[in-house]
Design a protein that fits this description.
Mean pLDDT of chain A: 94
CATH superfamily of the largest domain in chain A: ATPase, nucleotide binding domain
CATH architecture of the largest domain in chain A: 2-Layer Sandwich
Number of helices of chain A: 8
Low-confidence stretches of chain A: none
CATH class of chain B: Alpha Beta
Shape of chain B: globular
Radius of gyration of chain A: 19 Å
Oligomer: heterodimer
CATH topology of the largest domain in chain A: Nucleotidyltransferase, domain 5
Largest sheet of chain B: 3 strands, antiparallel
Mean pLDDT of chain B: 94
Number of strands of chain B: 5
Shape of chain A: globular
Number of strands of chain A: 10
Number of domains of chain A: 2
Structural class of chain B: alpha+beta
Strand order of the largest sheet of chain B: 1-2-5
Largest interface: A-B, 21 and 15 residues
CATH class of the largest domain in chain A: Alpha Beta
Strand content of chain B: 25-35%
Chain lengths: 290, 93
């Protein structure tokens, strides 16, 4: 099979140090996005296990598969989990979820966990939309803005570009930074227009790294305008898959004049982490109420 | 304390957001009745508060849904603004 440059690495992990049978509150967040799905299992507010994989064409199946993968080898079953929250674009299609919460609230909460309570501005660069979110020190949303009109400036756009350039998606950031001089951004982040423009640039003799630099730069500017609308207050952090792309992050940092916080966890997990934390709060509330 | 929700989009033609301040909105639902384009609905949000939102399926077309009203009545006299006693609704344009 020909190499698929867009294909990012799926992953799973579980903590070898936690014995979930001894713990009090077990919750899970399942984030079914338009491009990727994650399941995070938390015990007493700590990440116990997670899985991150590509969303298939069937949302309920994606939810089941990602959960199955996260549970693999842990001896835990879905029935052992006290509360499961579905979030993301496909949140209504998580058959085993007790409740759904929007990805905006979940990303805010997840970013607060991942980056700590000093985070005030979160940019979620998802598979098919981006969200700029302002949060308080508890991880509660205070202001948000979403662009879901088109896939400009999103993960899916980057996948298309990786494929077009024949560059593995994980290398796009580094390659785009390997340039002598920063080129002008492509004039449109619309994936279709940008693709046409990129092909033209290649024909005009531009090297791959320069074209990728022009695209990353356009993408950074696109999300900068979203952030500008809600106002950026530091600390600032990015969640979602594009947070792993240094080419976009560095250019955005430059435009903002701010450095993004360094993630301690896989940035794609933010929504599912937030969902699991919401679950913990709900379990504790219902136990208190008796 | 509530949050400011921006529903809509930005494209080459401008910035089109309906802005609802959940801190002011008490979920009374008068905007739902006032809007002839049926843009609003009242839901229980993620923090378990009653709040008006712009319906998911209307968010990509707020420019076309709100502009006829804005040109007919002017911004000050929009039916949704007049209906909302708390002044929780705004437009970005």
């Amino acid at each position: 099979m020909a190499q698929e440059f867009w294909r990012w690495e799926e992953s799973r992990w579980n903590s070898p140090d936690i014995d979930w049978r001894k713990e009090d509150v077990i919750t899970a967040g399942v984030d079914v996005g338009s491009v990727s799905s994650q399941a995070v299992i938390m015990v007493d507010g700590e990440i116990y296990a997670y899985a991150n994989m590509r969303t298939g064409s069937d949302s309920p199946d994606s939810a089941r598969n990602v959960m199955k993968w996260a549970l693999e080898g842990t001896g835990m079953t879905v029935d052992d989990i006290h509360y499961i929250i579905g979030t993301g674009y496909g949140r209504v299609n998580v058959p085993f979820a007790h409740r759904t919460i929007t990805e905006i609230a979940c990303h805010a909460r997840g970013a607060n966990f991942m980056y700590g309570p000093t985070i005030k501005t979160v940019l979620d660069m998802g598979g098919q939309d981006c969200k700029a979110i302002r949060v308080d020190d508890k991880g509660k949303v205070t202001n948000f803005l979403m662009n879901d009109k088109c896939a400009a400036g999103t993960g899916r756009g980057m996948e298309v570009f990786a494929e077009l350039m024949g560059v593995p998606i994980g290398d796009v950031g580094d390659i785009s930074l390997d340039i002598d001089e920063e080129p002008d951004p492509v004039s449109s982040t619309c994936v279709v227009f940008a693709k046409t423009e990129a092909v033209g640039l290649l024909r005009a003799g531009w090297l791959k790294n320069k074209v990728l630099a022009a695209y990353c730069s356009a993408m950074a500017h696109r999300v900068y305008t979203l952030l500008e609308r809600i106002g950026v207050e530091k600390d600032f952090g990015i969640t979602g898959g594009i947070a792993k792309n240094k080419g976009v992050v560095k250019r955005l940092e430059k435009e903002l004049g701010l450095t993004a916080l360094t993630p301690k966890h896989d940035t794609q997990l933010a929504g599912a982490i937030g969902a699991a934390l919401f679950g913990k709060g709900l379990v504790e509330k219902s136990r208190k109420a008796g | 304390m509530g949050y400011i929700a921006n529903y809509g989009y930005a494209d080459g033609s401008g910035t089109w957001y309906v802005i609802i301040d959940s801190g002011k909105c008490d979920g009374c639902g008068k905007c739902v009745e006032a809007c002839k384009e049926n843009v609003f609905e009242v839901i229980t949000d993620d923090y378990d508060d009653l709040v008006a939102i712009v319906k998911q399926e209307k968010r990509k077309s707020v420019k076309y849904l709100c502009n006829p009203c804005i040109s007919a009545t002017g911004k000050e006299n929009l039916p949704c603004y007049l209906a909302c006693e708390k002044g929780a609704i705004k437009h970005s344009w």
